[in-house]
Each structure stands twice: as structure tokens, then as C-alpha cells.
TrEMBL record:
<dbReference type="InterPro" id="IPR017441">
    <property type="entry name" value="Protein_kinase_ATP_BS"/>
</dbReference>
<feature type="domain" description="Protein kinase">
    <location>
        <begin position="43"/>
        <end position="286"/>
    </location>
</feature>
<dbReference type="InterPro" id="IPR052101">
    <property type="entry name" value="Plant_StressResp_Kinase"/>
</dbReference>
<dbReference type="InterPro" id="IPR001245">
    <property type="entry name" value="Ser-Thr/Tyr_kinase_cat_dom"/>
</dbReference>
<keyword id="KW-0418">Kinase</keyword>
<keyword id="KW-0067">ATP-binding</keyword>
<keyword id="KW-0547">Nucleotide-binding</keyword>
<dbReference type="GO" id="GO:0004672">
    <property type="term" value="F:protein kinase activity"/>
</dbReference>
<dbReference type="InterPro" id="IPR011009">
    <property type="entry name" value="Kinase-like_dom_sf"/>
</dbReference>
<protein>
    <submittedName>
        <fullName>Protein kinase superfamily protein</fullName>
    </submittedName>
</protein>
<dbReference type="InterPro" id="IPR000719">
    <property type="entry name" value="Prot_kinase_dom"/>
</dbReference>
<feature type="binding site">
    <location>
        <position position="72"/>
    </location>
    <ligand>
        <name>ATP</name>
    </ligand>
</feature>
<dbReference type="Pfam" id="PF07714">
    <property type="entry name" value="PK_Tyr_Ser-Thr"/>
</dbReference>
<dbReference type="GO" id="GO:0005524">
    <property type="term" value="F:ATP binding"/>
</dbReference>
<keyword id="KW-0597">Phosphoprotein</keyword>
<keyword id="KW-0808">Transferase</keyword>
Length: 286
């Protein structure tokens, strides 16, 4: 499935402002646009570290020395008023969790909207597994061993509990000790539709055919516990069910995955170990 975004040369519309609505209390500091421009060389290419449909991301340091990813939003794609946006920012500013990327500041001046998040020192999970997103010919990063992958999966599941959003590897950011945190928090109460699962379609048929070994990263070179892989595959297969009501909630997923953190040392995988995947595994954790 291909997606594209149309561009035109029209003047960007002014952001709607409703002076009659009270601005909510925001628990992170407001940042000066002039200071942000100064620290990012006027949002220049040297500070640019990422780009997406929402806008561009720049590296910067706050006055307290904290490194942040400065997300400059494209207001031409935003339909909400400043008050609606600030209400969203206020809600996000209250979220404090070990597995959510922390909002460190914000800026709303004229047509400019900026959010500053803690900087992920290890990049995204996508960058490590597949190479930097959007960069042609980018090579994958370090090879994560089995236990590191399980830990990242558990961390991500814990973060998703709070976000109620669809997820992809580019939204899983990695910090020191490979702690995983979820970025771009969405406070919607709706379950994700299966447009998100399109990213997992190559692996899903293999899981349902019990050919789990085909889904394992060959860079692991067989260094993983086959039984644990089969258990994780069972959980993963349930998480990509087409209908939302058939997917386990993330609390159950965390309970199912945590025992894998205590798995025995990896051993060479024998083919017969992948003969079946127990899709009833999740029932034991309900």
C-alpha cells in the first residue's frame, strides 16, 4: 500500500484562536520561539534529525542542558484551534510513565506550533532493525540479542497501555540500557483499525501457518530459545487479529511476555521446536 502527501504553494491558513475559551494548565514550560530558532539555527538542515507527515524534528538543548527532539508541526495539516491543541498538550504534559517519551516543553506563537520531547539517544527501533527511516540505503544498527528484543517488547507493551494507539517500530524510541518508550502519544479511546496491521502482513501468514522460524531475524544466527520464540509468536499473532475484540489488551500482553524475561539461556534452535504455536497461551493470563 502506498501513501502520498500532496503539496501546494498556497499560503498557510492562520491557526484558529478562540479567545473565549480558557487555556488549560500545562505542566511543562512554554518555550520561546526565538530561543528555539537560535538553538536550531532557524530550524536549519544541520539540526534536522527527522521528518514526517506531521512536520520536521530538530535536535536541540534546553537552557537546563537537557537534550530534546524539537518537533515543528505543519499547521497546514492541523484542523484544531490553538485552544484545542493546548488542551491536548495539557493532557500529554500530565503523562508520566517510564515507557512514554516525556514532553519537555511547547511553543505556540502565531502560526508556529512546537513540541519538545526528551531525546532518544539510541534512535528508534525501526532504525536499529531496518536502518534510518526515509534514508535510502541506510543500514540496520546494532544486532539486538534475544533478551534485548524481549525487554523492548515488554517495555513497548507497558507504554501502549497508557496510549491507546496503534503502534509501529518508528514510534518505539530507545534510550540508555535500551529502555523502550512510546512516542507520539494519542489520547483517543478508539481501538486502532487494521491499517496499522498492514505493516505486519508479511509475518502474519507465517505465524498462522506455524512457521515461526521464518519470522526470526537471521542475524540472531539461531541464538534464541525456541520455546520462548514460539510463545512470543503466539502473543504477536493475537495482537494483529483483524477484529479489535479478538486482540488481547496490553495488560494481558505484558503478563504473557514478562515470563520470557526469565527464559533460559539461548540455545541452537532445532526445527521440531517450531512445529506448533499455542494460540491458547493468552487464556492463561486472563
Amino acid at each position: 500500500m502506498a501513501m502520498c502527501r500532496l503539496h501546494n504553494n498556497k499560503v498557510k491558513p492562520s491557526v484558529k484562536v478562540d479567545p473565549n475559551k480558557a487555556v488549560p494548565t500545562i505542566e511543562v514550560p512554554a518555550l520561546s520561539l526565538d530561543k528555539l530558532k537560535e538553538k536550531t539555527e532557524n530550524f536549519g538542515s544541520k539540526a534536522l534529525i527527522g521528518e514526517g507527515s506531521y512536520g520536521r524534528v530538530y535536535f536541540s538543548n534546553l537552557n537546563n542542558g537537557k537534550s530534546v527532539a524539537v518537533k515543528k508541526l505543519d499547521v497546514s495539516t492541523e484542523a484544531e484551534s490553538n485552544n484545542e491543541f493546548l488542551t491536548h498538550v495539557a493532557m500529554v504534559s500530565t503523562l508520566k510513565h517510564d515507557n512514554l517519551v516525556e514532553l519537555c516543553g511547547y511553543c505556540v506563537e502565531g502560526n508556529t506550533r512546537v513540541l519538545a520531547y526528551e531525546f532518544a539517544t539510541m534512535g528508534s527501533l525501526h532504525d536499529i532493525l531496518h536502518g534510518r527511516k526515509g534514508v535510502q540505503g541506510a543500514q540496520p544498527g546494532l544486532v539486538l540479542d534475544w533478551m534485548q528484543r524481549v525487554k523492548i517488547a515488554v517495555d513497548a507493551a507497558k507504554g501502549i497501555i497508557c496510549t491507546r494507539r496503534d503502534i509501529r517500530s518508528s514510534n518505539v524510541l530507545l534510550f540508555e540500557d535500551l529502555r523502550a518508550k512510546i512516542a507520539d502519544v494519542n489520547l483517543s479511546n478508539q481501538a486502532p483499525d487494521m491499517t496499522a496491521s498492514l505493516h505486519s502482513t508479511p509475518a502474519t501468514p507465517r505465524l498462522s501457518e506455524d512457521k515461526v522460524k521464518q519470522c526470526v531475524d537471521p542475524r540472531l544466527k539461531g541464538e534464541y530459545p525456541p520455546k520462548a520464540v514460539a510463545k512470543l509468536a503466539a502473543v504477536a499473532a493475537l495482537c494483529v487479529q483483524y477484529e479489535a475484540e479478538f486482540r488481547p489488551n496490553m495488560i494481558i500482553v505484558v503478563k504473557a511476555l514478562q515470563p520470557l524475561l526469565r527464559a533460559p539461556a539461548p540455545a541452537a534452535a532445532a526445527p521440531e521446536m517450531f512445529a506448533t504455536v499455542d494460540f491458547g497461551l493468552i487464556e492463561a493470563y486472563k
